[in-house]
Amino acid sequence: MNTNLEEYHAAAGEITEAVESQLFGKPCYKINGKAFCCFFQDEMVFKLTSDAHAAAYSLDGSKLFDPSGKNRPMKEWVQVPIDYLDQWNEFTTAAAKYVGGKSK
């Protein structure tokens, strides 16, 4: 298994009500049917708002998630490189809360 994918599962799998699923054919986790994070291009993608969105987007190499590659990014979703693995858990928790999950 891809090491980055293992790290993705480790971060997202800590959210107790999270269920593994698919988003645009990519692995994702959902709460009550709502996706809050996914794995894309060996990076983790988070659905964020407010300060958490600003913090994730400000990281060097982070970008808005554009799964189609046709310059139509999803404004609430931020793709964060593996370089910031130490912050993936923080963003996962914020994303899960944003879609209605409870804190860990």
Specify the CATH architecture: Alpha-Beta Complex
* CATH domain class name: Alpha Beta
Structural class: alpha+beta
| Percent range of helical residues | 25-40%
Q: From N to C, what is the helix and strand string? A: HEEEEHEEH
What overall form do the CA principal axes indicate?
globular
Low-confidence stretches: none
DSSP E strands, number? 6
Biggest sheet, strands in spatial order? 1-2-3-4-6-5
Number of helices: 3
Query: How many distinct folded domains?
Result: 1
N-to-C terminal Cα separation, in Å?
26 Å
SS strand fraction:
25-35%
What fold name goes in the CATH topology slot?
Aspartate Aminotransferase, domain 1
Rounded average pLDDT:
90
Radius of gyration, CA atoms, in whole angstroms: 12 Å
Q: What about the largest sheet?
A: 6 strands, antiparallel
Protein traits:
104 residues; alpha+beta; Aspartate Aminotransferase, domain 1; six-stranded antiparallel sheet; 3 helices; 6 strands
Description:
- The protein has 104 residues and is α+β, with helices and mostly antiparallel strands.
- It has one domain: Alpha-Beta Complex (Aspartate Aminotransferase, domain 1).
- 31% of the residues lie in helices and 32% in strands.
- The protein is built from 3 helices and 6 strands.
- The chain has a 6-stranded antiparallel β-sheet with strand order 1-2-3-4-6-5, covered by helices on one side.
- Strand 3 and strand 4 form a beta hairpin.
- Helix 1 packs across helix 3.
- The longest helix is centred in the C-terminal third of the chain and has 14 residues.
- It is globular and about 30 Å long.
- The termini are far apart.
- The mean pLDDT is 90.
